[in-house]
Specification:
It holds the Pfam family DUF3078. InterPro entries: DUF3078 (IPR021428). This protein is mainly β. The chain has a domain of about 60 residues: Lipoprotein like domain (Double Stranded RNA Binding Domain, 2-Layer Sandwich). The chain has no helices and 3 strands.
Length: about 90
């Protein structure tokens, strides 16, 4: 005789209260001054980059956390600067 009972498994899924998102960018700028520009100055190159990361917690009852990390880094180079190759 076959057994008619089967083992039922209970699958418990815990909700994920965390949300994650991020954004990044890179900008390059070139400032050129031609030889016939009478006011003087010099040509430069610049690089700017940034990163924004967020991790937020909300259990929709009592607790809510908002976490944000923002990082920016920039470099500037000019031909007349003989000491530094890049300035930050």
């Amino acid at each position: 005789m076959e057994s008619l009972t089967t083992d039922n498994e209970l699958l418990v899924v815990r909700p994920n209260f965390w949300t994650h998102k991020g954004n990044g960018y890179v900008q390059f700028t070139q400032h050129y001054i031609s030889d016939n520009w009478y006011k003087g100055g010099e040509s430069t190159n610049a690089l700017l980059s940034g990163l924004v990361l967020e991790a937020n917690f909300d259990d929709r009852q009592r607790i809510e956390f908002e976490n944000k990390l923002e990082i920016k880094l920039g470099f500037v180079t000019a031909p007349s600067d003989t000491v530094h190759k890049y300035k930050t």
